[in-house]
Amino acid sequence: MGKRKPMPSAAARGSKNQPKRPKSAKQGAELPEENPQLSEHDDAEILDTESGAAGTVQLDKKANGSFQGTAQSDEDDMEDEYDAPSGDAPGDTINNGNDCFDETETSRSFHRHVSHIMTNEEVKALMKKNYKFKWEMPAVDIPRSKWVGTGEKVQEACDDHLRDVKVKLRDHWQRTLSDHLNSRMSFFSLCNSYRDIMHCNKKPFYLKSNGPDSSTMDAYLMHALNHVHRTRDVVIRNDAKLRNDTDRDISDDKTYLDQGFTRPKVLFLLPLKSFARRIVKRLIQLSPLPQKDSAMGQFKKEFGESDDEGIPEHSTKPADFDLLFAGDIDDHFLFGVKLTKKSIKLYSNFYSSDIIVASPLALKRKIDGGEHGKEKDFDFLSSIEIVVVDHADVISMQNWEHLEAVFEQLNQLPTKELGTNVMRIRPWYLDQHAQYYRQTILLSSYLTPEINALFNGLCLNYEGKIKMVTEYAGVVPKIQLEVRQVYERFDASSIAEADDARFDYFCNKVYPKIQDLDEGGLLLFVSSYFEYIRISNFLKFKEASFCRIGEATSQQDISRSRLWFFEGKKKILLYSERSHFYHRYKIRGTKHLLIYSLPGRKEFYPELVNMLGESENRKCNVLFSRLDLLKKHSFHGVCDP
């Protein structure tokens, strides 16, 4: 279990010191779930196998003369899946007006998405990344926000969207979610359009001012479950046909183009183990699979049991801080989830899994070959069709480069022979167009330039894009003091030159004024680790009287620096945003606040300014350029640019 103190791992900061890889789970005692509303599904089956092993895909000789990998054909689960591919009665139907939609067929949105074959002209148009957001629609239950998108306008949420959902899933959700189902349909309808989505006004679970809101999480889990079931149904149905007709020639039959290179189709990327526990727990609750066994007990031991585990009774920290870092805060986890007809299995072999749950750090290490120079193995990412990055704002406080590295490895051609029947691989995989079919869902409580760049640069879904535009209320009213806030603008012609322009302005315009002041109490705040190192080296070179608190600073050095700054023994305290994120210190002795670069998390701005409360002559200066307008807008209450 992670410690209560929420320090980031060294590897998450880019250091060579790396935490130990989580051990494989073993079966444990059965424990009931906490949610009384979902008590009928509390004892979830999770059959345990070797954790994270990427073992070799076996080959079985088929009667029709072709080879097929068992990882996708489910030869290891014959007793589970060969009886009824869809899991529904043959006569199950979904009524849609006067039409009758046969449940044994693929859903309309799913079939439309995977059966489309892109032309070279379409590929060239996507590579230009010239996106035009032509339409808008209100964001239900999200104040001051709206959805905008490219292509044709998405239908607003309605009951008709359940036509694309398997009967057993639909019935289970109606029983489980009851009156809450309608609140999930708004975001589910967007997910079901298979477009890339950027939702950067998501209310995180740790902000409980108006009660926890899980509607967005439920919606994308429902979409993922439906996609996996639809994908598996097509494969299993075709497997059954080939067993019954061993002489069938499938070379010219497009209905048998039903697979990717590997089985995993959904990837959840999350920052902390406690977040992964929430996802898996809710995934099991939303799944109608009947058999659920005792291995959930061991999963709780490794990932935590309660949503509020580890929250101190009497805390001086903000409430959102205590909830955010409750439970296991380890940032290294990676495991597979396999769905069969009767069970959910955790820790399944990656190549036989349907869903991969991982942190960017753990997956990056897996891609690089692990800690001991193991052979690189990331072919299981070659056929990912849905990627969900939840709590992207928290990931940005770790190491964003890990996330970018993972995206660069998605949907690449496999490096090894995996045993998949080439005659059944969808043509857009063979054409190396899989990245244009991948749906990416980015979720964050606020928008950052890094999230925006990822959405615009690495999300190339041919279906189009949907993003949320928000009119921010601003956080300036949360400042409890009368403080004159002076914004000093410097010129930066491009993003590539912004860091150097900021540093030059500080060295030539700002620091000479600081040097001339006799009094201390200057809190110098920087938002990035690289700025922290750069300013620290500059102050050392100038032989300035300063101390510092960064994310890698030991607790002993932190206490010493805070004391020196409070007593006036050091005039300047260099303070990083990541350190504030992981500790939320109240720095006493602050008389002058200099924000070298605006914080990414908007709630930090009033917290920093309010640290001037003990000063009689309060000063606050902020350095910014036109490239910082995205952050500045969220502070002062302006729409997204």
Automatic annotation (TrEMBL):
Domain UTP25 C-terminal: 478-631
UniProt feature, compositional bias: Acidic residues: 73-83
Every UTP25 NTP hydrolase-like domain range: 194-466
Record localization: Nucleus, Nucleolus
GO process terms (BP): maturation of SSU-rRNA from tricistronic rRNA transcript (SSU-rRNA, 5.8S rRNA, LSU-rRNA)
Gene Ontology cellular component annotations, sorted alphabetically: small-subunit processome
Pfam families: Utp25_C, UTP25_NTPase-like
Keywords, in A-Z order: Nucleus
Region: Disordered, residue numbers: 1-107
GO molecular function: rRNA binding; U3 snoRNA binding
PANTHER family xrefs: ORF PROTEIN-RELATED (PTHR12933), U3 SMALL NUCLEOLAR RNA-ASSOCIATED PROTEIN 25 HOMOLOG (PTHR12933:SF0)
Protein family: Belongs to the UTP25 family.
The protein, known as: U3 small nucleolar RNA-associated protein 25
Organism field: Miscanthus lutarioriparius
